[in-house]
Amino acid sequence: MKTGYLIDMDGVIYRENRLISGAADFVHQLLATGTPFLFLTNNSAPTPEDLAVRLKHLGVPGLAAKHFYTSAMNTAEFLTENDPECTVFVIGEGGLLTALHERKIANDAIRPHYVVVGEGAATMERLAKAHECIERGARLLATNPDNWCPVSSEKTRPGAGATAAFLEASSGRRAYYLGKPNGYMFHRACKKLADLALGTPENIVMIGDTMETDIRGAVEAGLHSYLVLSGSTQLENIGDYVYQPTRILQSVADLVEEIKTGKACDRLNSPAFGINGLHSTKSGNRHQTDIFAFHKPRPRPAMTK
Ligand SMILES: [Mg+2]
After folding, report:
1. Is 294 exposed, middle or buried (0-12, 13-18, 19+ CB in 10 A)?
2. pLDDT digit string, tens, across residues 182-232
3. Is 254 an annotated catalytic residue?
4. Which of 121, 184, 266, 280 has the lowest tally of Cβ within 10 angstroms?
5. 10 given a catalytic annotation
6. What domains are there in the chain, each with its CATH number?
């Protein structure tokens, strides 16, 4: 059986509103050869249908909702499996609301079991409401741990991790973070990939541009991992991490020939070295999962009784 691919999107297929060179050919070869693949994204804002349309407009046709698995879908599956009767108060966009709705998880602004935090849609009013829900006993769940997400090479936006961190600070409660690198995300993605392939692929490879999410998650899930340098990671920083990718590629363009012929490339180190590409120079922790602060619950104020 063929190799199956789990593929990150931002920094791998596109950056801002432009395709990464060779990405359209890469996806075309995956489709043409019947290679099993699934796009895996921590962005909980879009639905899979939104993502298929976006890629079509960027010049990658032929994709359908079944080719995408988002952290919002992962969150809805997690709740369905672990607490099927639960209710939720949500700070998030259409992709998260739709995923929860499809799983028949009810919205509850009075006494929810969970506050679910995704990308976007945070207003002070919603945050205050979520804070009240947590004080009344709701547990805090975030779709993904990203504090910030790249918008362009010079610009970022706040991510779900930052919103969850706000509520962690105000409530003294610690959030549980789904999405990459959480093992549940990889476990469910592998299952979905096997369903698409009508059987578990012999090898599963995660392709991504971010060490803390894509590569760490793949290593912990026992998968192969290919790091591409077309996104947020610079070659000279890879040695800082205890977990390492199986291969380092300049971009997914390096895989086109390999997928076409079905023969594994032996360029383990690829032509990636010495590239001066589009790289983020943003400092600061990008992901909540690598932060060990905020562990202590906030003491209750004396005046509550
Ligand atoms: Mg990425």
Report:
1. middle
2. 999 999 999 999 999 988 888 999 999 999 999 999 999 999 999 999 998
3. no
4. 266
5. yes
6. 4-71+181-272 (3.40.50.1000), 73-179+284-304 (3.40.50.1000)
